[in-house]
Design a protein that fits this description.
Layout lengths: L4 H7 L1 H10 L2 H4 L4 H13 L8 E5 L5 E5 H6 L7
Antiparallel strand pairs: 1-2
Helix pairs in contact: 1-2
Length: about 80
């Protein structure tokens, strides 16, 4: 019979450390409150309603523009290497 996850984490320190790290709020919610607050303000300024499929896309010069979600996220950002 296979071990339960609880038993695995109890007996394997390395696995438990990774589990704790993965489930801690620090890594899961990387953006700071200040970042979220600024982004929300820009969404309001650009008149993007809640539930819209548009993003407030941050430009390289620091400004924001209204842009479709698929275009903004399609560029890949950190995932494109």
């Amino acid at each position: 019979m296979a071990k339960s996850s609880t038993e695995t984490y109890r007996t394997n320190a390395k696995s438990r450390a990774k589990h704790v790290k993965d489930n801690s709020p620090g890594g899961k919610y990387a953006h700071t409150k200040a970042y979220k607050r600024k982004h929300s303000q820009m969404r309001d300024k650009l008149r993007i309603p809640k539930g819209s499929t548009d993003d407030a896309s941050k430009q390289s010069d620091g400004s924001y523009k209204r842009e479709s979600r698929s275009t903004n996220r399609g560029r890949g950002g950190a995932q494109r290497r």
